[in-house]
Each structure stands twice: as C-alpha cells, then as structure tokens.
Amino acid sequence: MAASFTRDSGTQTPTTYDRFQELKAFDDSKSGVKGLVDAGITKIPRIFCRPKVEDHDSVKPIPTQFTIPVIDLENIKTWSDEVVEGIRKAGGEVGFFQVVNHGVPQSVLEEMLAAARGFHELPTEVKKSYYTREKTKKVIYGSNFDLYESRFANWRDTLFCVMGPEPLHPQQLPLVCRDITMEYSKQIHKLGTTLFKLLSKAIGLTPDHLIGLDCSKGHCLLSHYYPACPEPELTLGTTKHSDPDFLTILLQDHIGGLQVSHQNQWFDVPFLPGALVVNIGSLLQLISNDKLKSAEHQVLANEKGPRVSVACFFTPHLYPSTRIYGPIKELLSKENPPLYRETTVEDFISYYDSKGLDEKSALAHFKLQP
Ligand SMILES: O=C(O)CCC(=O)C(=O)O
C-alpha cells in the first residue's frame, strides 16, 4: 500500500491504496495515456495526481524583462563574435535558447511533427508491438520511463529511438514515421555538430574539443505525445528535470506548455515558428565545470491537445564506452578547481534512471564536497 495524494492536491489528505497494482494495470494495458483519453475518462486516475506544489512551483512569475534568448545562425559560417558570445551567455546563464536559420528545412520540421503524431494516433493494437520496458531495445514505445520510480505519473506517451552512433536500421522504425525520422535524424545531427563547435569556442576551447570527447557521437529521438488532459491542474506533462545528456535539440508544436526555471521562476518557452529549442544537458554542465548550465524544465498538462514534441538527446546511450568524463582539464585552474567527480555515461544514466524524474538533480550526486 502506498500513501497517495487526493484529487484536490491543495488539501493533501493522504489516503492509502495499492499504487503498484494501479501502475501495473496502466502499464499492462500498453495503450498509454492516449488509451485513457480514448476510453473517454473525465477524471484523471490517481496515479497521475501530483503532490502538493512546491514553493518554487507556486510562486507566480513576477513580470520581468526576461525572455528565452533567440540566436540567429544565419551567419554561422563566419563564426561571428556576436553568435559565439550569444551562445556563451545563453548556455552559461540560462541553459536554454532557441535557434533560427539553423539550416533544417521547414518541410522536414513539419513532416517530423506530423509523423510523430501519426505514430501515436495509430490503433493501439499496432503500437503495442513496440511497447516495452526493456531498456536495451533501440525502438521503444512507452508511457513514463520512470513509471514505477516516480512520485506521480506524467500525462505523456513517448516513442524513443536510438539513432546513433550505430545507425538504426530503418526497418526497425514504424512505417508511419520511418523515412522522415531517418532524414530528421541526419539533419539534426549535423546541427548538433555545429552547436558543439560553437559551444566549445564559447567556453574558450578549440572548436573541435567537445566533438573530440564524443559529445556528438550518439543521439536518440524522443517523440512525445501529450493528450488533452481533463484535469490539467492536477498533474504535469513532464515533471521538472534537467536532461541526462550533453545537449538537447527540441522541436515543439504550437500548443505550448514547456517552461524553464530561471532564477527560481518558471518562464514559458514560447512556440516560435521554424525555431528549434536548445538546452544544455547535465553531462555538459559536468564536463564544462559549470561554465555551461543545464536548466530544469517541465511541461504543463493542458486541456488543449494533443501537444507533440520531438527531443533529440545527444548521448552515447547504450553504446558500450568506457570513456571517463570529468571536468575538462583545460578549463581548470587554481581559481577554478574541479566541481564534479568523474563518471562514465553509463553510470550517470543508471543513477538518473534509478531515481526517476522528480527527485534531486542528478548532478548533485556527482558534485565534489567543497
Ligand atoms: O516536450 C517537451 O517540450 C520537453 C520534453 C523534455 O523535457 C524531455 O524530453 O526531456
């Protein structure tokens, strides 16, 4: 039996119920959150009810001038000081920015979003063949990778595809999104390589330094589907977290709901037609010794929907590597001692996965004592 939270998350009268059985029933249905909505529910099951909102969440953002930086990559070939400085500030002070004129054609962005939606709107019987919690699979359809670890389930389903470093055989992808996923993956990997070069330069390293550390070696695509939610105030689309990778490039549709934490307040990451959202992952914060910051972010549930987004995580996930990652030596000095202990990507990800999204930042676990 587990303590739970009542539907009125404001009053928080604990009740007990067999949470595990309810999680398992949801998991065994293999039909995700979309399956609940298709079944016509008008109240969200209690496994999705979030605990009392934390202070940080309940603080209403005060009006401020802050907006998420937008970086124009039009003149990328000239490596203008303006672009490099823009990336340094955005990556080092906010951890989140949008890029425009990034070189990925608009038609590719639109087709990718449509195909992601197309997959999630396939009949459940078709999607079920991809449903698994077997983490070593390269193509996984599921709902809440941390279903059994988290304090409450999120209003979100995901198709997860490991695209590199070993090329995914297209036949492994569902037909409805096969060709465009291969094309999008290629284009987004190219953009990621450029961003790693700019980020290297922005923190005072040679342009190829981060690539030399295999930061762009592997990437995964996560196609998220957030169905319209009948009681959005009681749950979240994605719990607050920072990403367990080097870098994330996100394609989002127009529905909205993504928020980033900056100076202890939540700010909307607005939909900007044609733009891609970029955020620094925790592993890049670790190796840059805090010169780059991975900001916490979350996605609100919404009564409008579905919302669709496609995140590309740059991480050599699943790739058998023994490479040790720690703060980059060139960035260290007497005044800038290492802030983190060394780790492998595998150890970092296993720690991250073991705690679920809604606990302390994974970075805290790797922080050296002052
Ligand atoms: O759907 C979004 O906008 C964000 C998704 C996200 O935070 C993630 O994949 O880690």
Automatic annotation (TrEMBL):
Organism of this sequence: Gossypium schwendimanii
Q: Which UniProt keywords apply?
A: Iron, Metal-binding, Oxidoreductase
Q: Does the keyword Acetylation apply?
A: no
Which cofactor does the UniProt annotation name? Fe cation
Q: Which family does it belong to?
A: Belongs to the iron/ascorbate-dependent oxidoreductase family.
Fetch the SUPFAM superfamilies from UniProt: Clavaminate synthase-like
Task: Establish whether keyword Ribosomal protein is in the entry.
Answer: no
Q: Which GO terms describe its molecular function?
A: dioxygenase activity; metal ion binding
Q: Where is the Fe2OG dioxygenase domain?
A: 217-316
Protein name, per record:
Fe2OG dioxygenase domain-containing protein
Classification via PROSITE patterns: FE2OG_OXY
